[in-house]
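Course assignment 3, question 2. Fill in each field.
Student: A.L.
Task: Predict the tertiary structure for the chain below.
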Amino acid sequence: MYAVVSDVEKYPQFLPWVTGLSIVRRLSDTVFDSEMRVGFAGLSERYISRVTLDPVAHKVDVVKTEGGPFRQLENHWRFTPKDEGCSVDFSIAFEFRNPLLNAVAGKAFGIVMMQMASAFEARAKALSQEAL
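Answer field:
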């Protein structure tokens, strides 16, 4: 799962609403800035986030740094290896610049998160089947 989440450039291939993603600045092998483009119902936005990878501790941290509809957006992934797979701890904090969008998004947040989680799980399953 760490490999799936840390391979951010592949997100447009499997994540709903992600229409593009590119690395815009590489500060080291494990820290870079990425520009994500998202779209839904004819609307599109882009923003830049700082991504910090820690392959030893199995952690991925993402903090929005510029642009887009968010006043604040950060998420943190923690992966704990288990006998068969791993446990995934995910946290996200977000606030839209537009208060109306913030209220609407808050109501749909659970549905969106379930769809995103399902997309990550499906990607991991597909990659593990390809490896066999």
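Instructor remarks: The first helix runs from residue 2 to 6. The chain has three helices and six strands.
Grade: pending
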